[in-house]
Amino acid sequence: MKKICSIIAAFALLFCISGCVDNTAKNYDANAAADALNAALTFGESLEKSTAEAAYSIYGIDSALCSDAAIYVGSGATADEIAVFNCIDTESAKTVLEAVNSRKAYLEEGYSSYGPDQVPKIKSAVIISSAETVILCICENPDAVGNILETLNNN
Amino acid sequence: MKKSKYLLMICGIAAVITAGVSFSKTVLPNAISETSTPSAVSESADNHSTEKITSTKVEHTKKKQSTTAVLNTETTTESQSTTHENTTHAAETTTKSFSDTITFPIQIPTLRIPEIFTPSRELPTTPSGEIDLSCFDNCAFVGNSRFISFKNYGLAKNVYSVVGLNVDTVFTKSCSGSNITVINELNGKNFDKIILMFGDNECGWPNQNIFIERYSKVIKAVKDRVPRAEIFLHGILPVSSAESEENNYGVNNSTIAALNQKIKQLAADEGIGYIAPPSSLLTENGALISEAASDGVHLNKSYSKKWLFAIAEDIY
User: Which one of B49, B65, B208, B292 has the largest count of C-beta atoms within 10 Å of its C-beta?
Assistant: First the structure.
């Protein structure tokens, strides 16, 4: 009995630790997810939808790794951003996930000097990695991201 | 019979040889005397150079590196042209060959390889009448976060911009998604034009002369990497009146104006271009239009496009 409880506790702990990166198996359409997030979330400035090419360039991602990408960006006044990448396979998704984490670190370092008020928002960025979809979301209300994606799941 | 045949053959051969000899002695020398050997092949490797080739009086002014090869002929009639069309000089000569009625007009074409240059051109426009921003496809933007919107909004291709970048960290920091330092992003590139923008993040420096001194080093580093590019220093864009009053990090429009004078002088000293902050982005008192930027500093998409249009009209 003790052994069973300890095993269950270990699994529970494992799920808790991985809570910051949601590794659900659901894939999202890049444009649909980005549009839904932009429409529903709150940002410090109005974001503009940019091109997939801009997304690959900003993140330093080889476009061959992705079938599509969607990005909403700001002027630089804030760190607010939405980026959704549809990767061609799970291996590519790992590479893209690394690039997304690098982007988050880059923003945190850059804004720490000349926009320190943005740093807490960057630290609480939501990064979601499903089988072949990687999402980064920096916004004023990151807790709402999960609900919005759940709505997409149900549609 | 056979002997007469042989005799006829010999006479015919003799006649041909005689005709040939007289032709070579009379016609050919006259033709050759009307021509001269090709003269100068000139090449200029400097920008803004003017060059004259006197024998045909071809005169041109180049703005970019160009090669002109002229094959000249000195004829009895001296020709003068400032166009790049092929011209034909006809030198007529008569010769007394085996027939006085035969004339040989000699036409020596004058070949002129078209000069390669880039004249001032009308800017390309989109179907909606706006300036086509593909005119910047071979132009690089290097500088601080004020250029970031060009990249973020997909308005320009070659943007090397980092939040907080200054004239020191351009040698050490990298752009998002890259592990190459900003200055080394220019290595091996063949840009026609490079626009530099620094100064916002140096407004708070205690000694502005140090900023200018280090900016000069940045310019040298750019020249070393892309020696053929036209370099421009873009003046610091003023901030909105509200942002100027905040004076965050020493950034206010008085300091910006003073620094811009130094940047303009630096450009003159370095022999490169200076782009003044476009008036289309500014109010009457020289501040950034407040609707241009939500934080009074970083331009939104609409005003980023206006900014690029103004730059295009300035440098092309």
Answer: B292
Q: Where are the beta strands (DSSP E) in B95-177?
A: 103-110, 139-143, 158-161
User: Sorting pLDDT into bands at 50, 70 and 90, what band is B126?
Assistant: confident
For residue A75, give the nearest of B176, B249, B298 by CB distance. Answer: B298
- Find the angle CA(A22)-CA(A42)-CA(A20) to the nearest 5 degrees: 15
Contact, B299 vs B310, CB < 8 A? no
Residue A113 lies in a domain: yes
pLDDT at B105: 64
* Structural domain of A85: 21-154
Burial of B147 by CB count in 10 Å (0-12 exposed, 13-18 middle, 19+ buried)?
A: buried
Q: Which among A48, A102, A115 has CB closest to B301?
A: A48
Chain B positions touching A73 (Cβ under 8 A) are 152-153
- pTM for the whole structure: 0.71
- The reply to whether residue A76 touches residue B300, judged by beta carbons under 8 angstroms, is no
Question: What ipTM describes this predicted complex?
Answer: 0.82
Number of domains in chain A: 1
| pLDDT tens profile B215-251 | 999 999 999 999 999 999 999 999 999 999 999 999 9
Asked if residue A11 belongs to a domain, the reply is no
A56 Cα to chain B: minimum distance (Å): 8
Interface size between A and B, measured as CB pairs under 8 A: 81
Residues of A in contact with B163 (CB under 8 A): 76, 107, 110-111, 113-115
Closest CA to B176 of B187, B165, B192, B189: B165
Tokens of B221: 């580093």
Q: Searching chain A, which residue's CA lies closest to the CA of residue B292?
A: A75
Q: For residue A54, which residues of chain B lie inside 8 Å, CB to CB?
A: 151-154
**pLDDT for B41 beyond 60:** no
Q: Is B55 helix (H, G, I), strand (E, B) or coil?
A: coil
Cβ atoms of residues B227 and B200 within 8 Å: no
User: Is position A128 within any domain?
Assistant: yes
* Ordered domains of chain B (ranges, CATH): 33-117 (no CATH), 133-315 (3.40.50.1110)
Judged by CB atoms closer than 8 Å, whether chains meet at B148 and A111 is answered as no
Q: Are strands B193-197 and B230-234 parallel, antiparallel or unpaired?
A: parallel
